[in-house]
Design goal:
alpha+beta; Rossmann fold; Helicase, Ruva Protein, domain 3; Nucleoside Triphosphate Pyrophosphohydrolase; nine-stranded mixed beta sheet; seven-stranded mixed beta sheet; 18 helices; elongated
Amino acid sequence: MTLSEIRAILAEEHLQLTKSLGQNFLHDHNQLCRIVEAAELTPEDSVMEIGPGLGPLTELLLQRAGRVTAIEKDRRLCEVLRTRLENRPGFDLLHGDALEYLESESRNWNDWKVVSNLPYSVGSPILVALAEAPKPPRMLVVTLQWEVIQRLRASPGTKDYGILSLLIQGIYQPDHFFKIPSGCFFPQPDIDSGCIRLLRRDPPLLTPEELPQFKKVVKRSFSQRRKKMLKLLRADWPEQVVNEASARAGISPLARAESVSLEQFIKLSRLLHGWTPVSMNRGFRRAELHEAPTRKTWDSQGMSLRGSGSQSATSESSRLPMNPIPASSQDEVFDVVNDRDEVVGQKTRREVHELGLNHRAVHILVFNRAGQVFLQKRSMLKDRFPGAWDSSASGHVDAGEDYDTAARRELLEELGWSPPRGLQRLFKIDACIDTDQEFIWIYRCEGEGPFELKPDEIERGDWFDPAHVTRWITAQPRDFASGFSRLWREWIEHFSNSISA
């Protein structure tokens, strides 16, 4: 569709374009073809086009894709489109506000592509709505103001880096882009535009459940761009929680949001997840447990408890604020290792977590004769995942210590117990964000106790059927420390024959 054809249709239909709707029609055929080429369409593709206008891009999409669904807010343009394209196979036209449609429609967009010359007035909100969909489209090829393209591609430490950069990059990887001169549009805007291709991350960096928390952290952090980020976050979380979580994420206490990477924001939001205000005096608590144990348990004094439901057992302790790690614990020295798990130096616990350095840890799973696994509920005094369920015993490997020695030591320190038939190595997990940059060896042993739980480490413990643990993690993953959830998934993969549903 040429510029003269656009002018003729507008004159024939007596249409005046509405600036408030961001109606600037792209008429340059070469630029339209570049957009379609960027989408890499096949006859099997389903495409959503937002703001088709008079349909110059729509016509090209219908030549390549098997199905095109266009959403147009302007009723007058809908009538023109129906007249021109309603008989084309595979074409659906929806009259309505695309932003309202995306926010209310919970359909699965997983296999769809979005190819659109987005209206200037709502381009950014539409992108965010697409990214926040439970099943977002696999590819976005969109035309926007050039300044918005720059924000989508921005890196930490640049003036364009901000909320939009993070909300989109958390779901999509910015890919190919090109500039479109203002003279290619009618009416001609005062600014240049551009087209960018965004590819959905696979595997995703964020789950749909994690996205609201991530968005909350990002928006609060950028609420006053020139202020220190940690100071802003203390409006929503207690100071000691913010300080410890930011240290674990490798964020400096002096950092402003514009200097913090996507990966650090993701890690920080995960560390802060589960802390919710409970009163006006800024008390905080961890989310209640999904299911209360009703079998034999041990409390932190090593005493047997029977029929102790979670409501009575956690009513007081779950309201305790998070405690910072004691100074003596912060001064513990760990071996720092490279990506091959080779020792390259030593740092204190504080330095290891603040700098995000690779280090070592062990997790031990204790099974009884009935095949049940003993899990501990972490003390509310713990700096990481207080009140969450975790392995039978776990801990860092100290400097100069090997994995096997650390495993035996942790069993003695946390459970006051040594396995009568020794420990068996199961498998190893490489350092990653899920493990807090820990290389972890997983061990197995057998025994019935009795256990004497370390009060400042463990609130209580209980035996669980493995199949029950698997269902529980699936239903309520936040009841567990993230490292345990990761190792349990790997344990299932290695030893699935041990599990009966």
